[in-house]
UniProtKB/TrEMBL annotation:
It comes from the Bacteria. Pfam families: AAA_assoc_C. This is AAA-associated domain-containing protein.
Length: 114
């Protein structure tokens, strides 16, 4: 006899890809994260497309802050960009140079041919 599942507040149901992510080795988890972020996180997707279309594979981070400030205050815009930069770095899609305030495509991510 099959019992129905009982859900309680705070329970989490993982998708198949989420389950794979939680059990994967680090490089595989980064690959999964990169794929999901590129397709499901709008700001990460926008950054990747911008980097792919840029002349040298890099863009001023301020460009994205300016875009975000159209809908958010300066602190929220910067916080969102910082999160997206962190995700891009973890996923090995991009890197960020604090001295120049530039986001650059990670050559291994092959964003230029995406």
């Amino acid at each position: 006899m099959r019992r129905s599942a009982r859900w309680n507040p705070g329970d989490v149901l993982l998708t198949e890809i989420g389950s794979r992510f939680t059990t994967a080795e680090i490089q595989e988890s980064k690959r999964i994260f990169a794929e999901q972020a590129r397709h499901r996180a709008p700001l990460v997707r926008t950054i990747c497309k911008g980097l792919a279309g840029s002349r040298d594979g890099s863009l001023r981070a301020g460009f994205f802050v300016d875009l975000l400030r159209r809908g958010f205050g300066p602190e929220d815009a910067r916080r969102q960009l910082d999160t997206a930069i962190g995700w891009g770095r973890y996923a090995e899609l991009s890197d960020y140079d604090t001295d120049s305030d530039r986001i650059a495509a990670d050559p291994a991510a092959q964003l230029r041919s995406a």
